[in-house]
C-alpha cells in the first residue's frame, strides 16, 4: 500500500451524493422531512394493507395546532371489525375531552385502544408508536420513544381490513391540518428499545418487518413506499392541485459536500449540532465519535495509523430530529471515472441491468448513502443479481427492484 510521507493517513476526498427532486420541492436523500397538510387538502390514499401477521407496529410524527384540533382522523384502515384507526376523539372517561385515540381490536374483537391527552400532542411535535403483540398478547403506546401505557390484547391484532389506508383522511371525518413525518407500519411488534433507537432518525427502508415507510424525500403527487417500492404508494389528493395544498418541510438537513483531507474533515450544512464518526476502511471499525457545533473537525490529534485508510460519516441534529448519515465513503455518481461515456440502468426480473460502453466500476448505493454493491462492468449488458427488493441510487438515478 502506498504510504504518505507527511499526512497522518491515506484517504480520498469525495463529495456527498445528492439527489434533487422536481416539482416545486427540493428534497435531499437523507433529510428528515415533514409533510404539511394545508387547507383544502384531501389527504393521501395508500391502498390496502395486506399482511396477515397478528402483530403490528404503527409509528408517526405529528404536529397539530391547537386551533385545528377537533374530531379528526390521522391515519387508518378501520372497517367493521378489522384494521386500525388513529384519530382525535371525545373521551367519555375524561368529560368528553378531545384526545388522541389509538384504536384496533384483538383476535377476540376486544378493543385494544388508548387515549392520549391533548397536552401531549397539541402545538408540539410528538412521536407516537402503537404496538400490538401476538406473542405477548399486549398492546402498547409509546410517546417520543418512551413507554406511555399498555393493556391486554388477547391473541394479538385482529388483522387488516379491506379498507384502503387513508392518511390525513378517513371517510367523512374532518381532515387534520398540520404536519406528519416518518410514517411507518410494521408487521411485527417492535420493542420499546427498538422504537427508542431510531424513532427520531431516518430508516434505510430495508429493516426487518417494515411493511410501509413514507419518509417524503421523494415529495411529489405520488409518494413512494420506501419499504416495499411499487406497493402501497401514496396518492396525494386532489391530484390536480396537490402542490397548492400539500407541502414539504426539512426538519433536519443531511450535511453536504463532505471533504476529508489528512488533518481535517469539513462539510456544509446548518444544524444545532453534528454527530460524526471516523471509520477504518475494510473493517468498518469506528475509531472516533464526537459531537460538534461547527462545520469542521480536526483529525490531527487522533493518532490514526498512516498505513490504513479511513472515511467519515456526519449527520445533523435539529431539535428532536436527526438527518441521515452523510459519508465520504461514496462518490458523486457511483462510478470511478465520472467522465466516462454513456451508461443505461434499468431493472428486469428482479435484477438490475446495466448497459455500459466501456469497462468500468459501478457502485450501487442504498438511499441512505450506504454502499450496497461494487461491480466491475464489462462492455455491453451487465446483470446484477441477488439484490434485495428496494430502492437504490446508481449514477444519479433512482432504481427500484421489485
Automatic annotation (TrEMBL):
Pfam families: Laminin_G_3. It comes from bioreactor metagenome. SUPFAM superfamilies: Concanavalin A-like lectins/glucanases, Fibronectin type III. This is LamG-like jellyroll fold domain-containing protein. Gene3D superfamilies: 2.60.120.200.
